Amino acid sequence: MLLVRSALFNLAFYLSLIIQMIIFTPPYFLMRRKAAWVIPKNWVRSSNWLMEHIVGTTHSVEGLENIPKGGYIIAPKHQSFWDAIGLLPYLDDPFYILKRELTWIPLFGWYVNKMRMVPINRGSREKVMPAVLEQTRQQMADGRQLIIYPEGTRRAVGAEPAYRYGIARIYSELDVPVMPVAVVAGLFWPRRKFLRYPGNIKVHFLPPIPPGLPPEEFMQRLIDETESAVDKLLVEAVRDNPDLPLPKLARKRYEELTSEKPVSA
């Protein structure tokens, strides 16, 4: 049954994406840029609805009161495709720094360009970074929220943290708060996997780290606060979903945190 539900959800998810992009393209490009966010945000909501009613996966959010006003950096834990889209409805006017090649994809690239994302060229980071920072600074001046995944790519649940120093440089250059976000979506929508598992994806928006800290202190706070909250969510997820199959690293981390074996082991 899990295989069937996962297949149905994946089919519905991508069909919904294609159909909505086609249907809503005219109004999307006629609307003002910020107002047009309603279309991709509603697609995310409809995707969550599909996941709940086909797979049995819901999500809950804590810490919305921690979201600051105006421009800031949001730094989510990245384990799944879900946390690449699932947070969008809770943000006012977000943007990403992304590979320039993504803006060349027909239709998708047009949607991306409409939202004034910051494309980055391939090549030396030292050569392209000043231009990226300048574009990012301009977006921040409009009160937007930069989404950065501090580890750069999706990490397996329970894997050792691998935070990159680039976020510290951007934090120092932009002089804005950074809001960590703890989430363990990879337990329910695993990276590089076809299956989707029922349960509740918990998201916790943590208190923002204020601007102006030395880069090393900022990085340590970001890692400590994020990983501590992620560990807590991991333990809660395992205990709330005793039948959830755990990947090896997630099981190992759970045992380190609790000194007990999960029921599904």
Automatic annotation (TrEMBL):
UniProt keyword annotation of Transmembrane helix present: yes
Molecular function GO terms recorded: 1-acylglycerol-3-phosphate O-acyltransferase activity
Record's keyword annotation contains Transmembrane: yes
Pathway: Lipid metabolism
Segments traversing the membrane: 12-31
InterPro entries named in the record: Plipid/glycerol_acylTrfase
Phospholipid/glycerol acyltransferase domain sequence ranges: 72-186
GO biological process: phosphatidic acid biosynthetic process
Protein name, entry field: 1-acyl-sn-glycerol-3-phosphate acyltransferase
Source organism: Hoeflea prorocentri
